[in-house]
Amino acid sequence: MDRPPPPLPNLGRWSSWRPRVGDGSPALLLAGVALLELAQTGPLLRPETVLALVQTLPLAWRRRRPLAVWLAVALGAAVWAALGADGSYAALFGGPIAVYAVAACVGRPMSWLIFAATAIGVVAAFPLLGRPVPSVDAALLVAVVGTAWVMGDAARTHAAYTAGLEERAASLERSRQELARRIRLEERTRIARELHDVVAHHISMIAVQAETGPYLVTAGPEQATEGFAAIGETARRALTEMRRLLGVLRSEPDGSPALAPQPGFDDIPDLVAEVRQSGLAVDYAVRGEPRPLAAGVDLSAYRIVQEALTNVRRHAGPARAGVVVEFADRLIRLSVVDDGRGAGSDEGDGSAAGHGLVGIRERAAMLGGTVEAGPRPEGGYAMFVTIPLAPS
Questions:
Q1: Is the Cβ–Cβ distance between 344 and 338 less than 8 Å?
Q2: Over the stretch 131-176, which tens digit does the pLDDT of each residue have?
């Protein structure tokens, strides 16, 4: 029997501690070097050791509390200078590091004041240590502190610039997603309106056939049976289209156009002829045995071919297109292929090609179908749509 694999380590906990380890390691390293220096000049149990630790260990909190860390380091350095005690060269790095942290994490006016206070403190410490001012050492230390401030300020500026770029990129991504959502909503609304007209047409037919029912009854049982069978068939078609319409909201009911005959499979040859007149060479073929289609499938087949040919005409350039409608046992396949330069656009953008492909996908998905579209290896663009003839 196979043993279960060992549990994975808790990487999330390490991720939360990693920034603290990164901040604390330099502080501990600097404190360790300072202690080694002091150990070479005398015992560690003396005030200089405490002052060295005060100037180094707080650096572990330099990014979270930069002003407090700078104040601790500055006080340690001031006490060390006032006592005139022997110090550590490693501890002297605490001041520039604290100034860098302030410049990187705090606004420029405050960081400038901190730099000025540090530079004045460095110059003032030399007389307390019995060294002449001005001197090369004092100028060198001030230059080191100034360099630390410049580097920290540059890091803060770069971080702010990067954050601004990320925010703009996030805003653009949100806008792109919102645009894609609006495009899908518009397509679904347009499809819903067309299907609404189809369903309304069926309901109207049911009403007309029901009104003729009394006359058919008086005409004879055979005519009445045929009439009620027609009502039942029309009602079933209306229910089928209504199921496809569920979930698609029809907005702006006021001012909707009047009911009109919708195009279908039988109108595709006229569509192809119209496209040919616009200058695009189109080959059209029907495979299999054509059969009557449900109103929603009939309308969508026409609209899908129409959208695909529109994309070819707009984006393929000088090209030749081929349209094939294939009737299989329980489904219909639509193929639109061209040898041009391809649509070259993502369906999520706001271009016409993207808009049309979104509509095609919405129509196919509403009918339980699938869409495959993309550039062809030999050049051009291909789109294959499969739609089941029976409602899913």
A1: no
A2: 666 677 778 888 888 898 999 999 989 988 998 899 899 888 988 8
- Whether residue 334 lies inside any domain: the answer is yes
Are 238 and 275 members of one domain? no
Cα dihedral 199, 200, 201, 206 sign: positive
- Residue recorded with tokens 């380091």: 73
**Domain housing 87:** 11-133
Show the tokens assigned to 212. 């003729």
The one-letter code for the residue type at 336 is: V
Q: What is the pLDDT of residues 292-342, one digit of tens each?
A: 888 788 888 998 998 888 888 777 777 889 999 999 988 999 999 998 876
Question: Based on the number of CB atoms within 10 Å of its own CB, is 203 exposed (0-12), middle (13-18) or buried (19 or more)?
Answer: middle
Domain shared by 16 and 46, yes or no:
yes
| Residue 222, domain CATH | 1.20.5
- Supply the pTM of this predicted model: 0.46
Q: Has residue 162 been placed in a domain?
A: no
Domain count, the chain: 3
